[in-house]
Amino acid sequence: MPMNKDQAGFTKRFGDWRTAQGMTRRELARAIDVTEQTLINWERGTVPSADALARLVRYSGISADWWLGISDVKGRPRTARRKAE
């Protein structure tokens, strides 16, 4: 079954990022508490669970929106401030 656009976007971003970091799968797997096989699956088109994505976001400092292809901005979004009424 071919990957959908969201899967392909995550897979490319994840693979490119891990390579740019110079991290092995083993190093990253240990850092975010997943198995190496999980990372292999991500690189083959599986999108992470919400829990695993949250750990990746915390570790990398990159927003979930970027990882999932919702935004091209890597940073975490700022919380909008409400004006005092």
Structure description:
This protein has 85 residues and is mainly alpha-helical. It has a single domain (5-67), classed as lambda repressor-like DNA-binding domains (434 Repressor (Amino-terminal Domain), Orthogonal Bundle), CATH 1.10.260. Helix content is 56%, strand content 0%. It has five helices and no strands. The longest helix has 17 residues, at 5-21. The N and C termini lie far apart (53 Å). The relative contact order is 0.15. Residues 77-85 have low confidence and may be disordered.
- The CATH architecture can be given as Orthogonal Bundle
Strand content: under 5%
Biggest sheet descriptor: none
Q: Please provide the count of β strands.
A: 0
What is the third-level CATH name, the topology?
A: 434 Repressor (Amino-terminal Domain)
Summarize the structure.
With 85 residues, the chain is an all-alpha fold. The protein is built from five helices and no strands.
